[in-house]
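Quick one:
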Amino acid sequence: MSEAARLDALALAGDLPGVLLDAKRLAAMAPGVHGRRRSGQGEAFWQYRDHRPEDGARLVDWRRSARGDRYYVREREREAAQTAWLWLDANPGFDWTSDARRPTKLRRARTLALALAILLARGGERVGVLGGQSRSGARAVDRLAGDLLAAPSDAAPTAQSCVLFFSDFYAPLESWRARLARCAEVGATGALVMTADPAEDDFPYQGRTLFEAPGVRGGVLIGRAEAARTEYARRLLAHRNAIRALGAEHRFPALLHRTDHSAAPTLSMLIALVTERGP
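Output:
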């Protein structure tokens, strides 16, 4: 590890307790997660359903059926846990905020990712950083928080798993096409969490303005920034629509979250997407 990378890791590690605390507070406000409600091999009762001819007499629940004139089958809930993989953008531009009183896009993404992991782990699911080790149990999220310090991997996830991508999605469309294609090859689905700073949406700049990309030398000087607002908005919308279409093609619905808004609604939508996704 280079000295610069080591210092970055130490800085992130120093911020982890605060992020974990934010995540636990956020998770405490969210509805509970009870795993994937599917019939299958398991011990826990799920529901009764009507008996079908192909079930035969062996599967009839005679005690329940004796209460009426219909035959019922007792179904159990499938216990096999799914794995939710997390991927957080490591581009320097993602670790940015237009206002020091607000979290950076990266910090908000990490808070959301860890809050989701807390709820999934409580529901018996496995969680992990894409390309790393999946974890389960009471200590899963604490270990996962440390795993998030590593550079994101583009390794293919496990078959039929769930992958959550947290990014501003400003990278070229083709890079995302390749990334999602690797997921599709193994039957993985998930969600794209488009995390944005309000200044990126509203473009509040006026007059002579120098625009610099974090981590990149140089910049673009615009004499009248307000004159570029309409064209900027058009291009931003076109790019996001292309990302949404690409996500829909590969069964990765896109959610837009702004760092000046509450994280709770986005977390609730993610919970629904992960727990209700089909096999």
